[in-house]
Amino acid sequence: SDPDIMSQITETKVAKEVGVLNKFMRMIDICPDKAFYGFKHVSKANEELAIESLMVTDELFRSSDIKTRKSYVSLVESVRENGGQVYILSSMHESGKQLQQVSGVAAILRYPLPDLDEESEDEESDSDESGHEKTEAELHAEPLADDLQNMG
C-alpha cells in the first residue's frame, strides 16, 4: 500500500513490457520467422506451442465486445498454460500505442515457424500483406476492383 513501492513496481513492469516490445521489433528485422502479429498468426503459433512471449493491448484484452474479449482471454490463458510469458500492455502508455500499430497482439516465438506465413497465404485470407485484418469495406471492395479491372 506504500505509494513509493507501488510506483517502483509499476516502473519495473513497464520496463519489462518495453523491453519485450523492443525485442519483438528487433526480431521482425533479424528473424521474422520468430516474430508474429495479428490474431490469426499468433493463434496459429500458439497451436504449435511456439509462443515464448505474448503481448496484448489492454484494449483488446478488456474489449467491450464479448466475442473479442473471450478470444483474447482464451489466447492469454492458453499461452500461460503452455509456459509462455504474457504481457498486457496499457494502451495509455507508448509501448501499448506501438503494439496497437501492429494489430494490438504480437508474439515472440521459441523457435522459427517459416511455414506459418505460407499456410496462411494458402488459406482464403481476410488480412492484407502486412498481417492486418481487413475491414468489411475492404473485403467487399476487392471483388468490385477485380470486376472493374477485368472490364478494362
Automatic annotation (TrEMBL):
An example Gene Ontology CC term for this record: cytoplasm
Compositionally biased spans, kind Basic and acidic residues: 129-143
InterPro entries named among the record's database cross-references: eRF1_3 (IPR005142), Ribosomal_eL30-like_sf (IPR029064), TF_pelota (IPR004405)
SUPFAM superfamilies: L30e-like
MF GO annotations: metal ion binding
Composition skew (Acidic residues), residue ranges: 115-128
Positions of the UniProt region annotated as Disordered: 113-152
Keyword Coiled coil applies: no
Cofactor(s), by name: a divalent metal cation
Cellular localization per UniProt: Cytoplasm
Domain eRF1 positions: 15-113
Listed GO biological process terms: nonfunctional rRNA decay; nuclear-transcribed mRNA catabolic process, no-go decay; nuclear-transcribed mRNA catabolic process, non-stop decay; ribosome disassembly; RNA surveillance
Keywords on record: Cytoplasm, Metal-binding
Pfam families linked: eRF1_3
PANTHER family assigned to the protein according to its UniProt record, in alphabetical order: PELOTA (PTHR10853), PROTEIN PELOTA HOMOLOG (PTHR10853:SF0)
Family: Belongs to the eukaryotic release factor 1 family. Pelota subfamily.
Record's protein name: eRF1 domain-containing protein
